[in-house]
Every structure is written in structure tokens, then in C-alpha cells.
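> forwarded from #structure-qc
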């Protein structure tokens, strides 16, 4: 059970390939383009989250990703306690 912290959309494919059903992905980038990455997001086998304070949401983004759940800082802390491993996906 891992919590994947995704800091850049460039690592999205690698992150998805490493994910399992009991993992979770937390989008950390405030500029992550949900709509542009929708095809890849549809392949995610686990829950997908984004910090609500870390992003500006548009109606198109909300409609584009029904599996994306916006969470606050307290819920982020809760996610870290529910997962045995934290994996950070930075740029490259």
C-alpha cells in the first residue's frame, strides 16, 4: 500500500505503471492539467486525489475527472497514515 505524490504530469505514465489497486495518487502540482491528461487518468487503478488549496479548478476540469477527489490538508495527513510507503514522483 503506497501513497504516490505526483509533482509533475511528465511522470504520470510511470506513476500509473507502478500503482496497484490498494495504492493512492495525490497530485501535488497546482498546475496539473486534468483535462489534458484525461486519457491517462482513466487508466489509474487506484484512488486519485488533489489538494484543494493547491489548485484552481475550472468547470471543465471538474467535469473531465470524476474520479479525482479534492482533499484538504487534514485529509492529506490521514492518507499518509493509511499507507505504508510514500513515493514521490518528481520531474525528469
Amino acid at each position: 500500500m503506497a501513497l504516490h505524490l505526483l509533482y509533475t504530469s511528465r511522470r504520470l505514465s510511470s506513476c500509473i505503471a507502478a500503482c496497484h489497486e490498494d495504492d493512492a495518487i495525490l497530485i501535488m502540482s497546482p498546475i496539473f492539467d486534468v483535462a489534458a491528461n484525461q486519457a491517462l487518468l482513466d487508466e489509474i487503478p487506484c484512488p486519485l486525489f488533489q489538494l484543494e488549496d493547491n489548485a484552481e479548478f475550472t468547470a471543465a476540469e471538474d467535469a473531465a475527472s470524476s474520479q479525482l477527489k479534492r482533499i484538504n490538508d487534514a485529509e492529506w495527513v490521514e492518507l499518509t497514515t493509511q499507507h505504508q510507503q510514500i513515493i514521490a514522483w518528481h520531474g525528469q
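QC bot note: Residues 11-50+63-89 form one domain. The mean pLDDT is 85.
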